[in-house]
Amino acid sequence: MTAADDRRGSTRAAGIVGMAILSSRLLGLIREMVFAGLFGAGRNLDAFLMAFRLPNLLRDLFAEGALSTAFITTFSKKIAVEGDESAWRLANKVATLTAVFMSMVTLLGIVFAPQLVDLLTWWSWSPDKTALTILLTRIMWPFMLLVSLAALVMGMLNAKHVFGPPAMASSYFNLGSIIAGVAIGWWLDPHFGARSLVGLAIGTLVGGAWQLAGQFPSLWRVGYKYHTDFQWRDEGVRAVLTLMGPAVIAASAVQVNVLINSGFAASLGNGPVSWLNIAFRLMQLPLGIFGVAIGTVTLPLVSKSAAVGNVDEFRAILARGIRLAFLLTIPSAIGLAMFASPIISVIYQHGRFNEQMTRETAGALEFYAVGLVSYAVLKVLTPAFYAIGKRNTPMIISFFAIGANLFLNWLFTFRLGWGHRGLAFSTSLVATINFLLLYALMRRHVRRLETRQLLVGLGKMCLAGTVLALVSWAANYWWLGAWAHLRFLPKLCELLVAIAVGAAAFFGCAYLLRVSEMQDIADVFRRRFW
Known about the structure:
single chain
């Protein structure tokens, strides 16, 4: 297989995962839109989002963060060096250990929910709002157990180069939480007051169970059969846990910073928690489609290259993943920043979500967009350190990132008075600093990382981005600026046309400037449709 074929293969795999994640993220947007329309961006939605914050945070750290990264790295090496049977035995041990450990964490979370909620909100909420948040937190804690097992199953499938079905699993979560949550919420309170939030919390558990069970058919097809195995004194289990320790801390930087931001936001009154959450979710749409997709495809490849000692292949795969992340997220960041208000107005401004909430959320989205490119590249770059055995490096950088975020939050929010916008800007700056430091360290570890090609490609992408920014500015000034009072369908059509024109301008310029990854994408489309 030639290098060009290998490039196209990884690009095609990233495209499959990207399409699956696109479906999940769109359903996630519908979920957020429905909840925002039913409750508005105020007291009740603040309580639900804060209750979901901690189990979701731990999910990101243990399941989709540290556990997934550590398991895929070790499992891929097992397949490459010892074969499938050894890898399946490791999977049984880790699955049993995960179920036992997460069950214990779930019980502790339910017992200590009052203390955790007080800590998250900095004791700044009223007693009735706090009590509601505690109730919802206790209901949703088992979600972490379900989704941790789902992430483990996803890791097995990804290591076997099955990417589409596990990427679609998040769609099952969103469907389950929407259908079950709204139905049970309506049954409890047809007017969707505070009581109906219990229905949304139960719907979250239904969605988590569906996300896990929906992957089982694919897992059986690749030959896996689960058997309970409590023999955890095993070299493979030890390798997973050894990688997980530093990975928990390293992967926690973004999520802990978001958690810190939630505390700052909670102290600003009713609304900022919801505004920041909605803006962050929107920023995660392109991050999930592109950054997570590229990282998902890249991790098993670099793990196998590192396992067999092929440094040149490792370097080439990683550099290609970074360039592809740049190509796909630079236009996304520009588009989100330029079209923030129209996007939020179309998606969320319905029911109890009013124009003032749109303005406040758009302000946060503009600042979150600044860090989108860095977030995406970190999804590719951070796991590569574990593949080469440098697990302490991201951990050390994460300590610095958390400290920097605390200082920047205080500076922008309280000292400069930027409010919740300052929190979003601080998060973006920390992600950018994190990326630059990790890139410099990775370049030192592998001696070179095709930096010259990266800078040349980045310069071309910035030129294309300038064209996109001009097109977006013209659309805002001449077209979208006068649309505030249009109905939903005309607004949606105008926004989609503006986005399509901007995307065509960017990718057309990138193609004409001969950006190599753009050429690979064009080749994939030509082979598929011509």
